[in-house]
C-alpha cells in the first residue's frame, strides 16, 4: 500500500474513532435466506464461481524454489502447481493421461518429475510426459500429446491464481485490478509458509466468508478474545472491482500512538492495523503484524449447508518467532468456537421460517459489496434495500 493511502486509511480510522462512527454504506440491505440453501443455487455457484473463475490458491512462497510443487484437491478437481527449472509457475490437472489416476498425492515438496502410482507413467514438472512404462509392450502412443492437462495460471504480486478449467491464459492485469500495487507492496514472497489446516463446518460457504466481513460483532462475540486487540465496530471500507479491503485498528497500537501524540504520518501502519481483503470469489486474505492468513472457502460437493475453509498461515519475517508460534492455532480456535459456532446456528435457523432475509447494516458495507458481486457473477439482481422489501 502506498504511503498516501496508508495515511488516508489511518486518518479515516482516527476520525471515526474520535467521532464514534465507522464506514457507512448508507442503507440497510436484505439478503434472502435462500442465498444459503438450495441445490440449484449450489450447482450454479460451483459452475460459475469454482470452475470458470480464476481462484487465488496460494502465495508465491508456497512454491519457494525451482522444482517446488504443491498438489491440492481443495477446489474439487485435483490440481498440481509447480515451479519449473526457469522459475515459471504452472498448474495442471493432476490426472494421469493413461487411465486417470491422481498422479501426485496432496501435499508439497520438491521434485522435477512425478511418477503415477498406478503404472508409473512419468511426467516432468513442466507437465510433459517423459516416460511410458514398457512402451514397447504398451503400444505406440505420442507422448507429446499426453502431457498433464495445463490450466490457466498466473503468478502476480506474490499471489498464485489458477482457473480450474482448461482454457485461455489469464490476464494478470485483471486479476488484481487496482489492488495490484498494494499487493506487491506487502512483499508476500518474503512470508514463508508455516502451517495449514482445514476447517469443515455445517455452514454455507458464503456464511463462512460473511463472518470475516465486518467487525460490528467483535465487542460481543469476541469480547474475551479478538476484542482485546482490535477496536470493535470501527473499520474502513474500500472496493477494488470485485475485491474489497477493510482495515481494523489495533487497540493497543492506536492507544499508544494517540497517547504519545505521534503525528499520523509517523504511525507504524502494519503494526497497528488488521487488513482484511476479500479476493473474489472465495478468499479472505488477512495481513497484520503477525503475518498473512490465506483463507479459501469452498462449498461441499452436494450439501449447501456444509463448507470447508482451507487456512494457511505465513508469519511476518520481521516479527519474533515466539509471537507467531501459537497464533495459528489460537486464531483457528476463535474461528471455530466463536464465528463458525454462531454461523452453524444461523444455518440451522434458516429452515425455521423465522426470517425471509438476513439484514446487512449500514456499518457492514463489505457484506453489501460481497453479496452483490457474487450475485452479479451469477446473473442475479442486486440485494434489495430494507425499504424496498418492506414497502
Ligand atoms: S493411470 Fe497413471 S500410469 Fe496408469
Ligand atoms: Fe469474527
Describe this structure in words.
The chain has 391 residues and is an alpha+beta fold. The chain folds into two domains: 3-51 and 187-390, Alpha-Beta Complex (Naphthalene 1,2-dioxygenase Alpha Subunit, Chain A, domain 1); 55-169, Rieske Iron-sulfur Protein (3-layer Sandwich), CATH 2.102.10. It has twelve helices and 21 strands. The strands form five sheets. It has a seven-stranded antiparallel beta sheet. It has a five-stranded antiparallel beta sheet with strand order 6-3-4-5-10, with no helix packed on it. A three-stranded antiparallel beta sheet has the order 20-1-21. Strand 7 and strand 8 (122-124) form a beta hairpin. It is globular. It starts with a helix and ends with a helix. The model has no long low-confidence stretch (mean pLDDT 97). The site of FE2/S2 (inorganic) cluster has 9 residues, from loops.
CATH topology of the largest domain: Naphthalene 1,2-dioxygenase Alpha Subunit, Chain A, domain 1
What are the bound molecules? FE2/S2 (inorganic) cluster, fe (ii) ion
Number of strands: 21
Strand content: 25-35%
CATH level 4 superfamily of the largest domain: Naphthalene 1,2-dioxygenase Alpha Subunit, Chain A, domain 1
Please state the CA-atom Rg, rounded to the nearest Å: 22 Å
Strand order of the largest sheet: 13-19-18-17-16-15-14
Number of helices: 12
CATH first level of the largest domain: which class?
A: Alpha Beta
Unreliable parts: none
Morphology call = globular
Amino acid at each position: 500500500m502506498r504511503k498516501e493511502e496508508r495515511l488516508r486509511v489511518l486518518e479515516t480510522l482516527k476520525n471515526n474513532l474520535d467521532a464514534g462512527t465507522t464506514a457507512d454504506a448508507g442503507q440497510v440491505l436484505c439478503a434472502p435466506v435462500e442465498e444459503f440453501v438450495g441445490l440449484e443455487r449450489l450447482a450454479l455457484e460451483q459452475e460459475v464461481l469454482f470452475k470458470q473463475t480464476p481462484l487465488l490458491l496460494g502465495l508465491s512462497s508456497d512454491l519457494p524454489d525451482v522444482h517446488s510443487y504443491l498438489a491440492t484437491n481443495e477446489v474439487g478437481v485435483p490440481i498440481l502447481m509447480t515451479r519449473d527449472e526457469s522459475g515459471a509457475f504452472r498448474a495442471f490437472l493432476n490426472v494421469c493421461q493413461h487411465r486417470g489416476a491422481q498422479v501426485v498425492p496432496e501435499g508439497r515438496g520438491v521434485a522435477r518429475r512425478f511418477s503415477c502410482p498406478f503404472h508409473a507413467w512419468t511426467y516432468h514438472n513442466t507437465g510433459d510426459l517423459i516416460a511410458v512404462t514398457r512402451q514397447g509392450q504398451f503400444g505406440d502412443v505420442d507422448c507429446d500429446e499426453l502431457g498433464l492437462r495445463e490450466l490457466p495460471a498466473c503468478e502476480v504480486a506474490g499471489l498464485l491464481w489458477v482457473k480450474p478449467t482448461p482454457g485461455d491464459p489469464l490476464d494478470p492485469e485483471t486479476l488484481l485490478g487496482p489492488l495490484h500495487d498494494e499487493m506487491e507492496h506487502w512483499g508476500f514472497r518474503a512470508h514463508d509458509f508455516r502451517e495449514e489446516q482445514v476447517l469443515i463446518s455445517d455452514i454455507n460457504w458464503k456464511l463462512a466468508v460473511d463472518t470475516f466481513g465486518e467487525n460490528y460483532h467483535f465487542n460481543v462475540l469476541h469480547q474475551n478474545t479478538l476484542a482485546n486487540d482490535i477496536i470493535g465496530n470501527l473499520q474502513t471500507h474500500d472496493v477494488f472491482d470485485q475485491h474489497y479491503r477493510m482495515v481494523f485498528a489495533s487497540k493497543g497500537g492506536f492507544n499508544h500512538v494517540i497517547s504519545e501524540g505521534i503525528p499520523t504520518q509517523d504511525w507504524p501502519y502494519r503494526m497497528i492495523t488488521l487488513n482484511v481483503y476479500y479476493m473474489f470469489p472465495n478468499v479472505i486474505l488477512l495481513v497484520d503484524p503477525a503475518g498473512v492468513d490465506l483463507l479459501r472457502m469452498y462449498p461441499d460437493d452436494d450439501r449447501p449447508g456444509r463448507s470447508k475453509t482451507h487456512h494457511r498461515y505465513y508469519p511476518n519475517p520481521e516479527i519474533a518467532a515466539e509471537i507467531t508460534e501459537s497464533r495459528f492455532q489460537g486464531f483457528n480456535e476463535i474461528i471455530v468456537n466463536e464465528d463458525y459456532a454462531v454461523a452453524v446456528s444461523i444455518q440451522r435457523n434458516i429452515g425455521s421460517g423465522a426470517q425471509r432475509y438476513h439484514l446487512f447494516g449500514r456499518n457492514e458495507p463489505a457484506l453489501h459489496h460481497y453479496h452483490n458481486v457474487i450475485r452479479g457473477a451469477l446473473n442475479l439482481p442486486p440485494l434489495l434495500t430494507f425499504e424496498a422489501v418492506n414497502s
